[in-house]
Amino acid sequence: MRLFVHGIKSLIRRPVKTLMLFTILFIVFNLVFTGFIIENSIEESKEYIRYEIGAAVEYKMDYEAAMASGERPPALSLSVAEKIAENNYVKDFFVTESVNASSEDLEPVESQESSSGFSKNASDFTLLGANSEIPIDFAMESVSLLEGSMLTEENIKNGDYVVLVSEDLATQNDLRVGDTISIEKAATNNRDNNATSSTSASTISEEFEIVGIYSALEDGYSANNLFTSLTVTNIFNDKVGSDETSASIVYLLDDPMEVELFKEKVSPLLTSEYHTLYSNDDTYESLTSPLNLISIIAKILIWVVFIAGAAIILAIVTIFVRDRKFEIGLLLSSGEGKGKIISQFIFEMLVIAIVAFGISVGTSNLASKSVSTWIVEEQLTSDTGLASSTSTASNSIMNRGPGSSRSSTSVYGDVSMDTVADEFDVSISVAVMGNLLVVSMVLVLIGSTIPLTVIMSYNPKRILQD
Q1: Dihedral of the CA atoms 446, 360, 352, 305 (nearest 10)?
Q2: Residues 173 and 232 in one domain
Q3: pTM to 2 decimals?
Q4: Domain termination residue (choose one: 279, 303, 324)
Q5: Do both 312 and 419 map to the same domain?
């Protein structure tokens, strides 16, 4: 305790040197803290982007790679898809196959697309076959059950001819739960890359019982989508018992932050270089590229200032130790242990560092907010900033490929650079405060270690004689 009291008095007796060390620590802490806070904010923004995109991963064909090679890629494998679904990260697993369908009993609902001639579907209806009782459109809340019931596990297993129709379609055709409608496979010319034959005429027609009516929750959702089981669509597509598929295969994970780890773990299961696990990577990379560049700058700032600050503190503490050599000699001559003397010097450094730390946290937070404003206005939302030099993500047909989206539902969240900029936050949390404190103490100890160890070599008689 006496040494600590002596340490406080020593700081008071040397106000100029104390102020000098405080100023150095204050400047170094501010620069390091600002870089650290910005870096932490960038990591939180990247997490925000991943959470907004969602925890969906598609097992699909890499059509760009296949077209570049000029080869015909093998079809996706249902057995591989099921193996991937066994991974612990997977919460839900959806396989959705589609069939272009028509019906003599039904009048299709005209949408803006179909009435203006921009519809890409050559048939009146799309029969969507799901592998689960809750199709992905319902799971993603694009639609909800209005009346009746969903398909049961037995319906799916047995391939029962049951169907769910939209509220608009039911109203237009005066349909109710329990009614029967005739659905046939529409005449199409299959041009999929995996196609081995074309269909020029309708070959299958079946009577379906309406077991449920759904309501669309998203604007623009096609009212002509009809939901049935994957078993039924496989019958219509003559794929019963086949391992090959052109269906949409989607995995929903528990946590969006597990997406990359999941892909890394299950990628060895893929059987072709033209098969891929896609998680809207183009959007994620596009939005995080400018953040990564800023992160690199922040990390360089942190390390340069950290190393330079440690070197400056090292020089200053060395000067302080030399100036107090006579004092150290007297303490050693009076019987004080070298360890206690070193503890006193460390205590003095920590007192100055804690005061500098407390003030630096507030000032660096203000500085970080100014830097944050510059990042948002000049780099993320500016036409001349880093974000503008990054290619905009695209979910084009080329990127998605046939089979990647067989309905109107998107499995990914909607996020843009504007929303990222709005959410960019540099506030200091308790966790960040703890990290800053650790960085501060490490910086002080590194800068103090070498000069304080010199005390261990001091001989008190030699010091007093000098």
Answers
A1: 30
A2: yes
A3: 0.72
A4: 279
A5: yes
